[in-house]
Amino acid sequence: xxxxxxxxxxxxxxxxxxxxxxxxxxxxxxxxxxxxxxxxxxxxxxxxxxxxxxxxxxxxxxxxxxxxxxxxxxxxxxxxxxxxxxxxxxxxxxxxxxxxxxxxxxxxxxxxxxxxxxxxxxxxxxxxxxxxxxxxxxxxxxxxxxxxxxxxxxxxxxxxxxxxxxxxxxxxxxxxxxxx
Length: 180
What we know:
180 residues, Chitinase A, domain 3, 2 domains, seven-stranded antiparallel β-sheet, 24% strand
């Protein structure tokens, strides 16, 4: 099932409107009639093409590194590299995590503060959606590799710092402890 995320949809609509408005500034204003259904269809096609292109890049990255990753319904890819019999994380848990995030070119773009553990409460939207989804698949003590498509990461805006717009992210993450 195709999911259109509000961030991407809004950005595409704003981009189209910006182009239309910039064109209209150069010439005498003309009334433009936009068929809402046609615009919606064009936006859906643009979103599908973006997802297709991202999934192709993700597949190539995984193949190049010989990772054996599973895929969730949202498009998150993950591989548990240290499997344990710990307790499963659930929404509402406070967890201690240590992670590093990289762009697909290998550039480090984010990590736990001071490379030490970070305490977060699952379900409070402090983490990007892909990282949150992955933690809910993990058990206490597990280590995982993740590939997070942009729509589950920082979207078409990036983080305004080191993560560029529409970036696919690769994570190495350790769910060190679960506190209730």
